[in-house]
Write a structure and sequence with these properties.
Layout lengths: L13 E3 L5 E16 L2 E12 L11 H6 L3 E3 L4 E6 L2 E6 L2 H14 L26
Antiparallel strand pairs: 1-2, 2-3, 4-5, 5-6
């Protein structure tokens, strides 16, 4: 994202990743976010913590913003729905584009090791699929 000349509010917080690596932020920036397409569109001001690090994402919208717009999310369907004056607004992801961007980001960045944060004491059972239901 091109944020040259943006006025960041200072923040005294460090972000920690899954591998417990730390990232210092450049600050907090309040930006308008346009969600959906006309006539089912919503414009909401959202607060973003800005970091300078390689990522496969331009921005991550957090739970506070999703709660304000009363969004319902489905990670399985790569879909977000939210009420608007003009009807139900929809944000739909593209599975193939997501894979391509993720793979490109992983090829261009450093290799990271993965740490297990929590292990299950019992084996996790798989959900029954259409093929093996009793």
């Amino acid at each position: 994202m091109n944020l040259v000349g943006a006025k960041f509010e200072p923040i005294k917080s460090v972000l920690y990743g899954f591998t417990r690596d730390s990232i210092h932020s450049k600050g907090v920036l309040n930006l308008p976010v346009e969600l959906g397409t006309h006539p089912c569109q919503h414009i909401q001001s959202a607060e973003f913590v800005v970091v300078d690090c390689p990522s496969s994402y331009n921005a991550i919208i957090g739970r506070p913003t999703l709660n304000v717009i009363r969004a319902v999310t489905s990670t399985y369907h790569l879909l977000v729905k939210f009420p608007t004056v003009g009807g139900i607004g929809i944000l739909k992801g593209d599975q193939q584009a997501s894979r391509d961007i993720y793979e490109a980001a992983n090829r261009s960045s450093n290799t990271y090791s993965m740490n297990v944060i929590k292990a299950f004491k019992k084996p996790v059972r798989a959900l029954p699929s259409e093929n093996n239901r009793n």
